[in-house]
Amino acid sequence: MSSEPKALALRERCRAITSSSRRCRNHAIDARGFCRVHAGPARISTRATAETRPPEAILHQRIAGFADFLRRRLLGDYEVDEFGFDTDLVEEVLHPIAMGLYHHWWRVTTLGVENVPSVGSALLVGNHSGTVPFDAVMMQFGLLEEHPSRRHVRLIGADLVWQFPVVSHLARKGGNAVAIQEDTVRLLRAGELVGVFPEGYKGVGKPFSERYRLQRFGRGGFVEVALKTQTPIIPVAIVGAEEIYPLIANLKPLARALGFPYFPVTPFFPALGLLGLVPLPTKWFIEFGDPIPTDGYPPDAFEDTMTVFDLTDRVRDTIQQMLNRNLAARRGVFG
Question: What is the CB-side half-sphere exposure of residue 334 using CA atoms within 13 A?
Fold first, then answer.
């Protein structure tokens, strides 16, 4: 096949792929608007343009996209990286499911997306809350939805995530990694966006009376990683997650027996059984703050305890101020 027919064939392949899926949206695009991977025109997709189409056209595209997804799964025509990240599964299955919660249940408003770089690494550091960590999922898929470059966030999951068969499998497929510095450093040096929640279980399982009060950020491990890789830190403030499961008590003996960090009691759970597991439809705000650069520090700054502590406190204070500002601006818990 000569070069010109081959190029045309590749472009037609890219047209076919981008008409029914989102495969090219993370690939490099040249000045002509062509995908450098498939040598075809890149799909420029935004929610605003999608909403202008007739509902039947949107439904037809979704059905066609899902059919093409099933075909690729049967043929093994998809890629998984060394961490187990399955981009195809995330974009075609998990993302649409998460968007149901994002747009219709919690009606998330995302602010400051322009502070997240279109290319290259960044460390997203957020507050943790909500009894069940939906906040991390909404941040992850919300950025994929809202960012012009449709960027993926690789979350760093705590040990408990990897102890449950189904949860751990989906976490791997979703691009999450184990909470060890080596993996985080590898992801950042590969140019990925990495999301961390330094409060850990202390943030997710704190009582309702302490809502939106940041807990300790540990010993600053995330700052050490950022300094080591000279990665900018982007503070993230999430408002709305604290109220989805108001935690009024923690049954510690039961938690210890089950091997959980806490066992929550809310106004609806366990009193209402499975119905009590339905999260409340609060109104959410997710704000990405101004990046905090780390490339101006000496190469060995990550070994300086005072530098690490000072930068940890700066990030924590910034997120607390962002939380306070958004709490003051919201009209109410449910809207």
Answer: 3
Beta-strand relationship, 122-126 and 233-239: parallel
Give the sheet arrangement for strand 177-178, strand by strand.
Answer: 109-111, 285-288, 233-239, 122-126, 193-196, 153-157, 177-178
Query: By three-state DSSP, how is residue 40 classified?
Result: strand
Q: Is the Cβ–Cβ distance between 156 and 194 less than 8 Å?
A: yes
Q: What is the mean pLDDT of the chain?
A: 86
Does domain 96-244+279-329 match CATH 3.40.50.300? Answer: no
Mean pLDDT of the region 209-235: 95
Give the C-alpha separation, 198 to 18, whole Å.
Answer: 38
Beta carbons of 154 and 194 less than 8 angstroms apart: yes
pLDDT score of 203: 92
What is each CA distance from 128 to 10, 153, 194, in whole angstroms? 45, 16, 15
Secondary structure tally for the chain: helices H, strands E: 12, 11
pLDDT tens sequence across 85-128: 999 999 999 999 999 999 999 999 999 999 999 999 999 999 99
pLDDT band at 29 (very low <50, low <70, confident <90, very high): very low
Which residue from 40, 38, 43, 51 is spatially nearest to 21, judged by alpha carbons?
A: 43
| Residue ranges in 176-260 assigned as alpha helix (H) | 181-189, 201-204, 221-229, 252-258
Contact yes or no for 16/44 (Cβ under 8 A)? no
User: Which residue carries 């409060």 as its tokens?
Assistant: 199
Per-residue pLDDT, averaged over 57-81, amounts to 88
Q: Domain segments of the chain: what residues?
A: 3-78, 96-244+279-329
Does residue 128 contact residue 197 with C-beta atoms inside 8 Å? yes
Instruction: Read off the pLDDT band of 51 (50, 70, 90).
Output: low
Output the DSSP codes for 253-300: HHHHHHT-S--EE-SSTTTTGGGGGSPP----EEEE---B--TTS-TT
Using CA of residue 184, residue 178, residue 181, residue 227, what is the dihedral sign? positive
Report residue 229 as tokens: 């890789």
**Confidence grade of residue 219 (pLDDT, cut at 50, 70, 90):** confident
